[in-house]
Amino acid sequence: MPTGTFLGGVPSGTSTGAAITITVVDAIVRALEHNLGVLAAEQAMGRAQGARWRALADLLPNVNGRVSETRQEINLAAFGFASSPGTPFEGIPSIVGPFNVFDARVYLSQSILDFGALNGARAEAHNLEAARLTYRSARDFVIHVAGNLYIQALAASARVDAARAQQQTAQALFNQALDLKQSGVIAGIDVLRAEVQLNAQTQRATSAVNEFEKSKLQLARVMGLPLGQPFALDANLPELPANDVSLDAAVELAYRTRPDYLAASNGCAAPRPSGSRWSAARCRRCTSTPTTARLA
Predict the structure, then answer these.
(1) How crowded is residue 270: how many other Cβ atoms within 10 Å of its Cβ?
(2) Entry pTM
């Protein structure tokens, strides 16, 4: 699934107009509910479930039924039973009926051994498990994306505070230079130098504010916030437990629990037709070390 899919969300609700405070946990919960990547993975899992039911249907017996009712009249003369004088059927009416014919039938067919259907059912079972693991992997990746964007927005907010502090310092130095110039202590070139520094710091502060707003906009897209909904970030992050796992243990744990790796393994384990283009070269990823995707 393309990484760009996880950078969008489905907006839900309407804008309240009042700013709301969103913590990092709120951002992750909202992203898991409205992110496009998770919704696409969930739909793919539903399609895999439907494909598995279709494959299982080929293993079940086929039962068909038919019910009919007709009203008929039979001309005996058309079958050679004439009722003319001198014939054995003299005196018998040539037209029989009308009478009703009711017909009800049930047909049952079952393949004794169908290797194609068996392999198809096994393949779809592996594909369904791969889709479920892909869905889990998408949720894990959304947690990574939402948390990463939240931290980036907090970092951008800190850069805004630093830029504004530098702007205020430059403003104080410019005011001091004006006072010293009026007192005849410094020359006019020093005032001009302070003014240039103030303009540069003002531009940096404006650029930092723009980057911060862009980071918030990207985070709002991932969370699926309503369009135009103002919100504020909470800088108090939850404490995380210390990581005391060694590198080898982490790699082994990743091979056993990473959903993306397990999904690739199930995809390779699914039976393929003899003429399929699915080759062993496409399954080399199952033996490679799992890696974590990075946002561009």
Answers:
(1) 18
(2) 0.66
